[in-house]
Automatic annotation (TrEMBL), chain B:
Keyword Signal attached: yes
Protein's UniProt keywords contain Signal: yes
Secretion signal span: 1-21
Protein name stated in the entry: Phosphate ABC transporter substrate-binding protein
Taxon lineage: Bacteria, Pseudomonadati, Pseudomonadota, Alphaproteobacteria, Rhodospirillales
Domain PBP residues, every copy: 17-306
Pfam families registered for this protein in UniProt: PBP_like_2 (PF12849)
Natural source organism: Thalassospira lucentensis
Keyword list, A-Z: Signal
Amino acid sequence: MTDMASLMEDRAAAKVISDNLHKPVDWDSPKIARNIKKRYAAERRFKMYGLSAIALALLALFVLAGSIGSKGYTAFFQTYVQLEVTFDAAEIDPDGTGDPAVIGKANFDGLIKQALRDRFPDVTSRQAKRDLYAIVSGGASYDLRERVMENPGLIGQTRKVWLISGDDFDMLNKGYISADVDEGSRRLNDEEIAWYDSLKSDGAVEKQFHTRFFTNGDSREPELAGIWGAAVGSLYTLMVTLALSFPIGVFAAVYLEEFAPKNRFTTIVEVNINNLAAVPSIVFGLLGLEVYLNVMHLPRSAPVVGGLTLALMTLPTIIIASRAAIKAVPPSIRQAALGLGASPVQTVTHHVLPLAMPGILTGTIIGMAQALGETAPLLMIGMVAFIVDIPGGALDPATVLPVQIYLWADSPERAFVEKTSAAIMVLLAFLVLMNGFAVYLRKKFERKW
Amino acid sequence: MKKTLAVAALMSVAFAGAAQARDQIRIVGSSTVFPFATAVAEEFGKTTSFKTPVIESTGSGGGLKLFCAGVGEQHPDITNASRRIKKSEVEKCAANGISEITEVKVGYDGIVLSNSNEAPELDLTKEQIFLALAKIVPSKDGKSLVDNFYTTWSEIDPSLPDVKIEVLGPPPTSGTRDAFTELVLEEACDEFPAIAALKESNSDQHKAVCAGVREDGAYVEAGENDNLIVQKLEANKDALGIFGFSFLDQNGDKLQGSMINGVSPTFEAISAGDYPVSRSLYFYVKNAHVGTIPGIEEYLAEFTADKAWGDEGYLADRGLIPMDAKERETVRNAAMNLSPLSM
């Protein structure tokens, strides 16, 4: 029935069209003009949708970058306090030996405390002294020791020295602690704020570029905490990941694309690879825990295990990208090579792979960037940990950049808030660099035909 | 050839500093004890010739599982816990050859219910908190049990402000949530005759009612990140948050702790034991590893020194509530003698 009806309709429509075809088109008729207007409007609307999509994406990006940047940029600067430190010979090197071993053991912390007491002589109570000492970071004594070790001539002199400040004092100087609120509900009492004002009016408080942030490992003191340990951990982890997943991924892709017979077995392999690319990363972490730690007894928290685990995760990405790149090489290139007498292996290594390389590298770097941002699988193998020492190799305990961000975000100290944002900026910078490198490689090796 | 060399070079760099016998203490466990343990570890690394211990934040239960997996350098030496070890865990340890464990009580941690200091300070009882947060509550006439129907605080008690009940807190996987459930909800629930009556008739249901937290949106699981809850409280003046005392201590200019049973969560009130929602923190040491892994005894000495866990120690600065001097002395002696735990 319906077939009949629709056939009738079609006929009627065809008749209208054929009738119209015989009539000359009146381009100025109001109907045509309306129609054209409508089509132009539709086109403008379509462009508008596209533009607003881009605008929305850009806005989101700006809000994200803005909120991270505005919170985090202060972490690249650190408050320093200038104090007059007496490098008392009786304290540092009483026998005048000049022996670095003796100087290294001296109580530099005591010198700083003495300098603070000299600056504020009317502080007497035990609690007030504790507060006073908190102006300068616990790490400052190590700086002072280094300074004296480098220049033993300082011993016996009195010098004005810039010392790294404690985290609460730093927060006050950066304006994160307001002096206006009730004394009981802020981290610093009125006396401490008075000391700050006194030092500030002497010009003895200054923000300096915070190099430690880029050279130190983790610390529980926000002013001493740095990302270098995590960055090195990430580097070792990615090196292991790359060394493993790149060759395996490329070989797998070449075999599947160029040599594998099309049968049920290869179809199953293909489907599985595509599925693996969508498996949540925590599953790879559990696999890593079981295989590498429980069966192979590799050390916990080591970048080598992290790298092996992340290699499993990035393999499907690399294989899929490489296969696409190899498939995009025109068959005429293979036919020409084979026609001139090259063996299939020569065809692949001399012609197909070099031409597919830009695509393969882009896929690999995107896989690596994914691995760089991953924390979930690392939780299982013990890389979510507090590690102070900078790892010296892939078997030393280490953590990675995103884990460092997570750990700082979870710390109660107020000063870690800005450190978290700063660490995010560093991670983003790494990602932008890696993606930029991918674009560069593509542009450099790209061949048009 | 060149490529092979490059790969070889890469690998040798990566594997430099190959594994010898472990010369570094490994610690796992509670995320609540983590900030204190890391502070001690850092100080220990700086002031002794030993390497800084590696500390993983795995949660109390996860930590004890790893700890009890066996003796040997691939297993951790110490685990932190925000609750006491369970009998079943001691038995599991023993089954894996870990017969001697030293228990070290570290101090106390208060769990606070807090809101923005621009909102009025609340004075709550445990029963009121139960009525606000439990999944199942006694009906108005108190005779039967119904799904939680309270939407504002003033419905629970007219003296409380007329604002929507909205509490941000940790998810069930968190030790803080366990402790909050145990110390507030489970204690309060038997104050209601209708629930207390269940205890005899149906103890399974009684347990479920006492520990069940409502899931209709009034209690928001805000993730394990306490800083996130702090930020959300700043933005939302009507909301309350549940987290550890150290976060309130750090953010006293933005937040205030609600009184519970008439006591404010202050350092003094928690350490005196007046504040009702506080718990003990512990760590456990595998005695078999002492002597094999260097530095464990020295780490114990660092942790139990007054400059660390004392009234004015650096752990108190980070929000740990110390035990009194006498108890510290007892625990320190037990720890230094490695007196094994018996349950």
